[in-house]
Design goal:
globular, 12 helices, alpha/beta, five-stranded mixed beta sheet, binds zinc ion
């Protein structure tokens, strides 16, 4: 199979991790690279730091995909006088593109926390903090009974009536429409100056709000009346299956002590290791996870009914107050380690997506820990202060 262009790879990544799902403060997408260049191989890594750039150069890849942005807050220089500028120079000189999938990969389903949930053996996962499902409208239209099926066809062709694996979903009920055509009207049914009563069908169809103008244009084009009567109703917002973190179940419950050991062995080793808060003998089954810094979702972890929350970058007061309020147990793992399982998952999904398009790339996953911590200090040889 042929190699895709960088444009093709970015398009495939954008389908898997839509940029529209990114937080508004985030900076995702292509940082450097020529869209027309072919891509033969891709390296996935958490951080676009110097050691990873050197790894990409050593592998001879054409594209580096990282979870964390190189420039989150913008910049006015890429001079090689800073670490970030040097990364840009090293990448461009080696002909390597850089693409970032950050909060869009966190929010997508499957995304970063799904990969974390998978390596911990969680099943029946759902978002810990769901984003609203895509907004929906409903159109209610009244049409002479013989024209109802044709109108449903036209609305379906414009995107209405899509429901999972079902298309052209509509609901209809018979009724009677009445109207008085005034002077100047050219009624399809009835006469000017006479009250008309017509057997009509009330048709209801749901559609994505983004398709509203297409659906209404199709309605007006297909409806036999000069002045079709219709309502457009905005449906209530509903939690979707995308969002931050995941909560799921272990198929076999175990003690917090055993689960902490499972977490430790499921994630890549780091110098910092993890920390556990809670009753080690307590049985845990429902598990909340959030790859990366997840301290903002401690409350959601508790209200989800989770027995334990696995995330990164937790602080003393936040955890202390969470536990004092009766919150669930907490396992604080290194940030890099909680996001690392996504790399292999994303690489596999990219290859599969490109294969559907008849192209292929080879992929590799960086195994260099880019957590900044290199050692954990213990008070060895000293009496336990407690
Ligand atoms: Zn992160």
């Amino acid at each position: 199979m042929a190699n895709p262009s960088l444009t093709d790879v970015v398009s495939a990544l954008d389908v898997l991790y839509p940029p529209a799902l990114a937080a508004d403060w985030d900076a995702v997408g292509l940082v450097c690279g020529d869209p027309a260049e072919p891509v033969r191989s891709v390296l996935f890594a958490v951080d676009p730091v110097a050691v990873v750039v050197e790894e990409a150069i050593a592998h001879g890849v054409d594209l580096l995909v990282t979870h964390h942005p190189l420039f989150l807050r913008g910049t006015s220089t890429v001079a090689a006088t800073t670490a970030k500028g040097r990364a840009v120079h090293r990448l461009i000189r080696a002909g390597i593109g850089l693409h970032v999938a950050h909060t869009n990969a966190d929010h997508a389903n499957p995304g970063v926390s799904d990969a974390l949930a998978d390596v911990l053996g969680l099943v029946d996962t759902r978002p810990l903090e769901p984003l609203p499902a895509p907004a929906l409208d409903k159109v209610v239209v009244f049409v002479p009974e013989p024209d109802a099926e044709k109108l449903i066809d036209a609305l379906a062709a414009a995107g209405a009536g899509e429901l999972g694996d079902y298309a052209r979903c509509a609901w209809s009920t018979p009724g009677v429409g009445t109207f008085l055509p005034r002077a100047g009207a050219t009624p399809t049914v009835g006469l000017v100056g006479e009250v008309a009563r017509v057997d009509e069908t009330r048709v209801e169809m749901v559609f994505a709000r983004v398709a509203r103008s297409e659906v209404i244009e199709a309605l007006q084009a297909a409806h036999p009346y000069e002045e079709p009567a219709f309502d457009v109703v905005e449906l209530a917002s509903w939690p979707g299956n995308e969002g931050t973190g995941r909560v799921g179940e272990l198929s076999v419950p175990m003690t917090l002590r055993a689960f902490a050991a499972l977490v430790g062995s499921a994630l890549p080793a780091t110098a910092g290791g993890g920390l556990v808060a809670g009753d080690l003998d307590h049985e845990v089954r429902r598990i909340a996870v959030c790859g990366g810094a997840g301290d903002a979702y401690l409350r959601q972890a508790s209200t989800s009914g989770a027995d334990v929350y696995v995330t990164a970058d937790l602080r003393h007061h936040v955890v202390s107050e969470h536990l004092a309020d009766g919150g669930c147990a907490v396992i604080d793992m290194p940030h890099w380690a909680t996001e690392w399982p996504w790399l292999g998952d994303a690489a596999g999904r990219l290859r599969a997506r490109l294969a559907e398009r008849g192209t292929t790339v080879s992929t590799a996953v960086s195994t260099t820990p880019t957590d900044p911590w290199v050692a954990r200090v213990h008070a060895e040889g000293r009496e336990d202060p407690h």
